[in-house]
Amino acid sequence: MRRSALAAVAAIGSASLLLSACSKADDNGGDGNKSAGANAATKGVVNASTQKGGTVTYELSDVPDSFDPGNTYYAYMYNLSRLYARPLMTFKPGPGEEGNTLVPDLAASAGQPSDGGKTWTYKLRSGLKFQDGTAITSKDVKYAVERSNFARDVLSLGPNYFQQFLVGGKDYKGPYKDKSAEGLKSIETPDDTTIVFKLNTAFQEFDYLVATPQTAPVPQAKDTGIDYIKSIVSSGSYKFQSYDEGKQAVLVRNENWDPKTDPLRKQYPDKIVVKLKVNPETIDQDVQAGDAIELAGTGVQAATQAKVVNDANLKANTDNAYGGRLVYLAINTQVAPFDKVECRKAVEYAVDKVSVQTAEGGPIRGDVATTVLPPDIPGYQKADVYATTGNKGDVAKAKEQLKACGKTTISTNISARSDRPQEIDAATAIIASLKKVGINASLKQYPSGKYFTDYAGVPSFDKKQNIGLHMMQWGADWPGGYGFLQQILNGGAIGTSGNTNLSYLDDKQINEALAKAIATEDETARNSQYAEIDKRAMDLAALVPLTYFKVLLYRPTGFTNLVSTSAFSGQYDYLNIGTTKK
């Protein structure tokens, strides 16, 4: 989702200074973004306005993994959660790569590194309060990190970077088991506004790590573990009015949020409604009618795409953006016979990537991919280890690798998310390709809200169900090679559930190279190391790159301050969207 070099920290002023508008809203209720033009929100803010009031509605075809800021890993929830959960750092609302600019949020300034990048110190802003009026302290941030990273049997979602890199992280059992007042010793809180992180190795991009919602404060006395989702305590500009599991969440203004402590949020709408399990076609209709924003940011459905790209007036309301994302097929290296590299290479050669691209919606949905790192992530180097004529696969080479693996046929299963029609279509195209070489794969569909916790992300489930292949889409945790690669290639990221390393790759060379790269101060050298890791993963045939993802968003009229940001995979930045409708 982001870039690798530490962005310059900038003080954020008013909305009018923060973003350059492509079009201005009619504050009397007009829909000024109608004539903004195609891709306008990738270049600036569309329908810029400071108008307050009204309701902003988001719609999602399934349920999110969790609204709990310490237990979520979808990019759209990282985006949305900032409305009620303020991390130490965050990303400035801005078009395209401008949105990758890292700025202080709960912290007063960027982290102060010492000890060669092994110690990071942050000072909190003064006057911070939770929704109940109690003061937010550094201890609340410390506790948030402890619960999100060290209680994996309770909160299994989200990355576990802090667990991996904090001193003593491998041994600490988390706050639900450890009842001591001290908690994890490598997170120090010498006073109520200072928090210090002690790392076991240099981590040159740590400011990006604390931009995750895992650093958003949680009061320990109010934490109820997995049930915290039912009573989240807000530190942001909005708070939960209601939460009806599987149906809807409603947020309203947090009266104890103080704009003096927050130069980013503007608190424009009166209410924010998130509707869940809405039919994808219905979402498209509501978006085109100007009644909703599609929360997942995956864009319009195939039928809608055909309609809007062939109508000049409709196309003028679309944004086609790269989002630093890769659509790929993860090959499970722990499920036989894909524990043999030759069997994995057979899959690499067998897949007709053009058929997959077509199934996803054509070039407007992404370019054919040949590397792990997308072109808009530092560290990318052009390569094609398993080149085939026209990217349409090579049956002869695939069968050759299959023979080297000691097989003439393979029977396996492929997982995909049931509420993502384009992912299902892409999986179906892959199944057709594989069948031509003797690999018989059956499709297994699972809901996206549980895809990682209960199904594809659970190694024991995959082995039992013979799921050797997984449909996957990935955007970097932050804009750099490490932020992209670590959670999908590092063996240290593998757990009993909630995994995003769906290749289940645990390669000593890659693990050591990732550790070396993140400790390297020189950015050019660091990026070169990421390119080598990419090459190693492809040599091991850990995954089949399918497309460098592009999203086609339809820009609903009546909503204000719409801007497509690379920080959240090309989605609209949800921090300050308002509405001209009453």
Automatic annotation (TrEMBL):
One of its GO terms (cellular component) is periplasmic space. Keywords: Signal. It holds the Pfam family SBP_bac_5. Residues 101-493 form the Solute-binding protein family domain. It comes from the Bacteria. One of its GO terms (molecular function) is peptide transmembrane transporter activity. One of its GO terms (biological process) is peptide transport. SUPFAM superfamilies: Periplasmic binding protein-like II. Residues 1-25 form the signal peptide. This is Peptide/nickel transport system substrate-binding protein.
